[in-house]
Design a protein that fits this description.
By secondary structure, the protein is α+β, with helices and mostly antiparallel strands. Helix content is 32%, strand content 19%. It has 11 helices and 18 strands. The chain has helices spanning 8-18, 41-47, 61-69, 107-116, 171-174, 234-237, 328-369, 372-427, 433-447, 467-470, 476-491, and strands at 26-30, 53-57, 81-84, 131-142, 147-152, 157-160, 180-186, 189-192, 207-215, 219-225, 228-233, 253-260, 264-267, 461-463, 503-504, 524-529, 538-544, 550-557. It has a 5-stranded mixed beta barrel with strand order 4-5-6-8-7. A 5-stranded antiparallel β-sheet has the order 11-10-9-12-13. The chain has a 5-stranded mixed β-sheet with strand order 14-18-17-16-15.
Length: 563
């Protein structure tokens, strides 16, 4: 695939597009050194069709020329990409256009960046914010199913969010692709409103739909609503002799018959395939029923409540659900097994109460209150309850063992994933001027929470003449530590980190010797610790110029006190 922009003239036109008022974001992707794209450009254009413009540029003459035409740090090159918001001309801060590197980001990140910018407007095109109720059709989900594209009646594309939904009701469970939804529209953000679970319309003998969220050989757990779960035993599914797992599977949407005796109970075995259905409830105002025959729903992935641990299902528009990731599988098993333990604990408690009641009845009644036949029947029932209690205890012990095993497996995989990620980050550090600049920006983005970036901004900085050369002697681990120390120096955070041991460099070893000050510009020299308790521990020397600009001088050994 050839790049859209390959010449200086085309770069001039692109810079003008980036810096003019626009109606939508502009996503720019550069080629790698071999001329290929590391981000999926066709996917970007497909997912952002009608939402953002996607442009490609060849790394080399075009990117270097573009760099001189754009504000500082707003360029792309060597496979990187970024999304420029529509009003970038009015506020050309590079922090508003996150630079994405293919080694640490993927195509989804660029899509998310562009979608997050769709609600922005330029100063010239700004309009008075209006809040109103609106209705539209759900088009698709994005951002890991935490947001959705909705087309309103007038054709406007807006982003639906879960801002008004409770934390345990994900957007993907509340909305259905291709179905209507209404909510509060604030600019270009649609906020669906939740509907409380109300099962009062389900009368005795009526039929409705339920989602299977947990299956064992003896029982299944189903949901009429993400917050309303019920247990079906063997007799409620297909009879006492048929394992429940042979009939039901997690993710099935099944018919159930409602019983009221006196509380609400369900039966799949008694359901009539031809009976009219009471529609499943909608989860949001103006939304479609969350369950429908023939519409796939996925298995849950988190617990919902103490009484009913199965998790909220999510929409699966694909023909086949994606395979779970290695990190997700232990978590799902962990939550499902916790539900087994909780349910079994309640059943054991109930059986123990039944046994106690029967035992007391037999003890109180004796032959004066009951005949021999009644006593024999009560004793037989008592023995059956004892056997059932033993079975439930054994199953509970097995479930607790599985829970412990799943929890340990999850911890081990989490540690392995964390170690692998750290090793991968270290291996990608490129000890060149451009590589270190990219690594400093990436490290600052990873180590600084969004809410702290105004307090610890990445200030203007530059490299001293000997800085890059001083990195040659460092291994990958030391280089990664050095970059973190540089970020702390540039942001000024090293002043609040005791381990940095930050202090001004003096002209001699005495405590009364004057501080080192550069005669040419009055810059002050600082010394910061990179390593501790290691032979020849490294230190960072840097200059702080009048005005706050940081000049990284050298990485030195502990006994090297030259600036």
């Amino acid at each position: 695939m050839d790049a859209d922009v390959a010449t200086t003239q085309q770069a001039d036109e692109l810079a003008a597009d980036i810096m003019r008022p626009r109606q939508r974001p502009l996503v720019l992707v550069s080629t790698a050194s071999d001329g290929t794209f590391r981000f999926d450009v066709p996917r970007l254009r497909s997912e952002l069709d009608g939402i953002a413009d996607v442009v490609t540029i060849a790394t080399g003459t075009a990117t270097k020329h573009l760099e001189h035409l754009l504000p500082p740090k707003a360029q792309v090159f060597n496979g990187a990409g970024r999304s420029y918001p529509p009003d970038f001309n009015g506020d050309a801060d590079w922090h508003r256009s996150h630079l994405r590197f293919p080694e640490h980001s993927d195509t989804r990140d660029l899509v998310d960046d562009a979608m997050a910018q769709t609600g922005r407007r330029t100063v010239e095109s700004a309009r008075t914010p209006s809040i109103r109720r609106a209705t539209g059709i759900v088009q698709r989900f994005f951002d890991d199913d935490t947001r959705a594209i909705v087309r309103l009646g007038d054709g406007t594309m807006v982003s639906a969010t879960a801002a008004l939904l409770p934390p345990d009701l994900p957007l993907a469970a509340a909305l259905v692709v291709g179905e209507p939804v209404s909510g509060i529209l604030d600019d270009l953000e649609l906020r669906p409103e939740p509907v409380a679970a109300d099962l009062s319309a389900l009368s005795a003998g009526s039929h409705t739909l339920a989602l299977v969220v947990k299956v064992t050989e003896l029982r299944a757990t189903v949901q009429l609503h993400p917050r309303e779960a019920f247990v079906l035993r063997r007799r409620d599914v297909a009879g006492d002799d048929v394992p429940v797992g042979d009939v039901l599977h997690v993710g099935d949407v099944i018919r159930v018959r409602v019983r009221r005796d006196p509380g609400l109970a369900l039966s799949h075995a008694d359901a009539d395939p031809a009976a009219p259905l009471t529609p499943a409830p909608a989860l949001v105002v103006g939304g479609a029923p969350w369950l429908a025959e023939g519409r796939a729903r996925s298995a849950p992935n988190q617990t919902m409540s103490d009484a009913a641990a199965p998790a909220t299902p999510v929409t699966e528009p694909q023909d086949a659900p994606p395979a779970p990731t290695a990190s997700a599988a232990p978590r799902d098993a962990d939550h499902a097994t916790r539900h087994d333990v909780n349910a079994l604990a309640r059943e054991v408690s109930a059986l123990r109460g039944d046994m106690l009641a029967l035992t007391n009845l037999v003890a109180r009644g004796g032959r004066s209150a009951t005949d021999d036949g009644t006593l024999a029947r009560l004793r037989a029932e008592n023995e059956q309850l004892r056997a059932k209690l033993a079975e439930e205890r054994a199953e509970r012990a097995n479930a607790e063992a599985k829970l412990a095993e799943a929890t340990q497996e999850g911890r081990e995989k989490g540690r392995a994933l964390r170690d692998a990620r750290r090793a991968a980050e270290r291996s990608h550090v490129d000890a060149t001027a451009d590589g270190i600049r990219l690594e400093i920006e990436r490290t600052w983005g990873n180590r600084t929470a969004p809410g702290e970036r105004t307090r610890w901004p990445l200030r203007e900085y530059r490299f001293g003449t000997g800085f890059i050369e001083s990195l040659d002697a460092l291994d990958e681990n030391q280089l990664s530590k050095a970059v973190r120390a540089c970020v702390d120096a540039i942001t000024g955070r090293d002043r609040e980190i005791p381990a940095r041991e930050l202090h001004r460099l003096r002209t001699g070893e005495g405590g009364d010797d004057p501080y080192v000050i550069r005669d040419a510009d009055g810059a002050r020299c600082w010394r910061s610790s990179i390593e501790q308790n290691a032979p020849g521990a490294r230190r960072l020397h840097y200059w702080e110029l009048p005005g706050g600009v940081i000049e990284l001088s050298r990485i030195v050994h502990h006994d090297d006190t030259r600036p």
